[in-house]
Amino acid sequence: MMQVPELPTLDRLNATVPEDLDVHKVAATWIESFASFVEAGNVDGIVGLFIEVSHWRDMLALTWDFRTFIGAPSIRKFLSDRLPTVKLTNIRLREGSPALLRPYPDIAWISVVFDFETDIGLGSGIVRLVPTANDGWKAHCMYTNLDDLKGFPEQIGSLRNHAPNHGKWESERQRATAFENEDPVVLIIGGGHSGLDVAARLKALGIRALVVERNARIGDNWRNRYQALCLHDPVWYDHMPYLPFPPTWPVYTPALKLGNWLEHYAEVMELDVWTSSTVNSARPNDAGTWDVVITTDGSERRFKVKHVVFATGLGGGEGKLPTYPGMDVFKGQILHSTQHKRATDHAGKKVVVVGACTSAHDIATDYYEHGVDVTIYQRSSSYVLSTKNGWARIMRPVYWEGGPPTELADRLNASFPHLMSIQLNQRLAKIIAEDDKDILEGLRKRGFRLNMGTMDAGFSLSAWDRAGGYYIDVGASQLIIDGKIKLKNDSQISEFTETGLKFENGDEMPVDVVVFATGLGDARDGVRKVCGDAVGDKCKKIWGLNEEGEINGAWRDLGVPGLWYMIGNLALCRFHSKHVALQIKAMEEGLLGERYSAAD
């Protein structure tokens, strides 16, 4: 059961915010005290700078893992265990960073950005200070992140290649991509955004990586989806490492356009990619490396690599169909949303889309706009928010026009531990629901079943914990309200018949095509197919929140040495690809220390 900490409201703190508050002085004084206690190894002194119900989230800098410590006792144990090992030093306030924020009338904090060093790395942190009744301002929420390894900076900016290249570039690229006389250090399975992101990060750190993509072209994983597919995240949230989208880019990216961008990205970043290729197997050996077999250009290539990165999405990118009696006798067509291409394939047919989240709404809209009779079958309630109102509340001003640089935006976003944010998101979900009142009331009148998201916390927690359960409305809701997309949700499906669907209440519906927009399978299934049952059995759960509120399995130790899972939307992969690359680089340079991991 998730622990939901209380928010540090002014009433709970029995505190007020002075009108003559000197924000910079408060921040500088706190950072100075924090640095002094750290230097002295005074754990009690450090903990005394925090309120009792506080949070410390660390990404690799102090734990070589993703951890969130909740409450003073947990933070005290963490610091006692780790401070002597990591040697935290050179803590300094980042100039211009302190700001007093009032997210709600009863909540106030000073947001402070600082920099620090450890024995092997350079890091940055964000701390939020709240007022107290008698002890001044104390930390409520601390975030520390590993930004770089000492002595191994990314080869970007002033460190880029300065040598002129006269007529050799093309042949050099051909030799590099061929891997004729060398093994890659890292094999990346999948050439979507997640695979390309981590390949670009590794390249910047001087690590040789090969990306293997089964499709004929980079970007085909988007081109081959249903034609109506479009990103529902705004462009400011979606930039890729080192190469942001141009300022002319639309706010919401069509899938075909994104596919072309990924192909362009791989070329511009000079990533080593094999297309129309398949990783047949990747098995760990006794030497601590991986024996890899790849089919490419009709022949087999064999490598020994040190790391294998799966970048194949949830469920390995493959849909999983539910099973119902009678599916074998149904004379129509059954397919998963991942197999659906275009609405015109089913012109003149009667279509049911099973599911009521993003893909279901997109596909149903596409069918309606092409004159196809379509019904959404809703099995359970859904959370709905509009892009117009929801994103303006959730994304602005961090991921928005005129917002902070993307690298800082990512750290600001990550600095809110997921469990700490539940009550904040519960408040926000109510505000968005009021903004979207007309749409939501219209859906309810139509009979569409709504909820407020996982734990009534709206979009974010549903995404973290379930990777679904919501629809970010870009127009389908009004089509449902107007009856243009039909709705069925008054009974569960009991079976398929030869001509359609039968429901538990006795209703029957004639159907020609059933599209299951019911999500994807277990990501570990894809690992098992390539790496075998022995590896699959050891592989940790991937996605969903653990007891600390951290995502299971992704971006770090997966339970099998040298095995990684790169997963998430464009923003998550942009940010966490650096974490994956830093861990691999640290291993290759002998710098990775013992992980301070949560008990399984």
From TrEMBL:
<dbReference type="InterPro" id="IPR050982">
    <property type="entry name" value="Auxin_biosynth/cation_transpt"/>
</dbReference>
<dbReference type="InterPro" id="IPR001763">
    <property type="entry name" value="Rhodanese-like_dom"/>
</dbReference>
<keyword id="KW-0503">Monooxygenase</keyword>
<dbReference type="Pfam" id="PF00743">
    <property type="entry name" value="FMO-like"/>
</dbReference>
<dbReference type="GO" id="GO:0050660">
    <property type="term" value="F:flavin adenine dinucleotide binding"/>
</dbReference>
<dbReference type="GO" id="GO:0004499">
    <property type="term" value="F:N,N-dimethylaniline monooxygenase activity"/>
</dbReference>
<dbReference type="InterPro" id="IPR020946">
    <property type="entry name" value="Flavin_mOase-like"/>
</dbReference>
<keyword id="KW-0274">FAD</keyword>
<protein>
    <submittedName>
        <fullName>Flavin-containing monooxygenase</fullName>
    </submittedName>
</protein>
<feature type="domain" description="Rhodanese">
    <location>
        <begin position="181"/>
        <end position="231"/>
    </location>
</feature>
<keyword id="KW-0285">Flavoprotein</keyword>
<keyword id="KW-0560">Oxidoreductase</keyword>
<dbReference type="GO" id="GO:0050661">
    <property type="term" value="F:NADP binding"/>
</dbReference>
<dbReference type="InterPro" id="IPR036188">
    <property type="entry name" value="FAD/NAD-bd_sf"/>
</dbReference>
